[in-house]
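Final paragraph of the annual report: two paired records, presented back to back.
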Amino acid sequence: MFSLQNKISLVTGAGSGIGASIAETFAAAGAWVFVTDRDATAGQETVTRIRATGGDAEFISLDVTKESECEAVAQAVQGSRQRLDILVNNAGVGHVGTMLTTTGADLDRLYSINVRGVFNVTKVFLPGMVARKYGVIVNLASIGGVVGVRDRLAYCASKFAVAGLTKAMALDHALDGVRVNCICPGRVETPFVTGWLKKYSDPEKAFRDAAATQAVGRMGKPEEIAAAALYLASDESAFVTGVEFIIDGGFSAGK
């Protein structure tokens, strides 16, 4: 197992789904984990699960769209642990719609969370990483940030932007000791996805159809994405930066 012993990490959107799984996986690998989320109850539940298994974690409320909150979280981390070694920008939202059915407000909402959120959080932690000549940033993009996905205009636009931010930062700070990569999952069975599928007239069929879009015939699991995040966060991946780490069950293989 890859080790994060003595590393200080922070995961955004860690109250549920992929973010929660990443936080728990990091703690199991020895990292101190700052769990952040807009939902305090969900975030505290993640911390409780981590502590119940002997891990170290602390919850901090964070809306990634608000610069003032990002700055306050950076100050809290600095005051508590003096540094941040690993940042996982996981917080994000989805949207279903084409150009004809997507409004400007829809696009702005996705960009404010999925893109500006990554920018806001990274902005407050990157200077410390550069100063110490050490840091790892893992951004959660999507297979929708690598190939086009039908009926996901705003989502694809925002996730392509996350992939672009990742590559640009990786190049800009490769000689500063900071590695930046993004993970591009296919469909993953998270509370968000299952909740979205329940809106269909036949949720079970919608679930089967969504699972069938992956070549392996099923959705991914949050812990499978967390395993990739652990590798990218560990020193074993020291030669890896600027990559789009695709985990999509073969969805993009024929694209």
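The closing record of the year follows.
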Amino acid sequence: MSDTTFRDDVFAGGLALVSGGTSGIGAAIGNQLARLGAHVIVTGATAQEAAAARSAADFAAASSIVLDVRDTSAIAQCVASLPRLDILVNCAGIIRRGAEHDPDIFDEVIDVNLNGTMRLCAASRPRLRETRGCIVNTCSVYSFFGGPHAPGYTASKGGVAQLTKALAVAYAVDNIRVNAIAPGWIATPLTEIVRHDAQKSATILARTPLGRWGEPAEVANVVSFLCSPAAAFMTGAIVPVDGGYLVA
């Protein structure tokens, strides 16, 4: 089945929901799934984010909507409104860096990154059961080691990794596969502050065997694989997309 992974129509007839799909890695994933035949709905936290996504020159999704992943009721309404659901990609996430040492800010980051992922997974399970669909969550290299300047982000991404494993086992009875990606240092708006710091960027690149920042499309390629028939026997996997950073 591997020859079908990037066939132009591999996801034809299917519907994909990508939370946090209005920018960065999420936008690249939404565009890639759409180019491979899926009807894609991407979500952003605000109307401004949704509108900006629609106006992007490379926007390939069918629609961009507002969804607050902290709002259980809004999530339930969103999922119930879909004609079907084949793919759920959880990309909604925030980082507050040093401010996360404040317990209130820490709670905010956990609520979006970890609890938001769980809310969407739980709401989507009945719909994905109908289609034998799949979920791809977004972890991070920080799922594997400590980030002293972002304790909330680090804790949330470690939680997403363990949640992915737990749901992979729990949802297998419904023939729903649950995997995750663990991006490394990818050139997105979220990492812009680090990329533009010459010293920090040089430190990152010195540890990255491939010697460069990754591109969102390179992460999207891995997500497409995990959603495709080529990954039919994969569940509970956390796949690093990091240029070798974790093994250096």
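The CA atoms of residues 45 and 68 lie 5 Å apart. This concludes the annual technical report; the extension proposal builds directly on these records.
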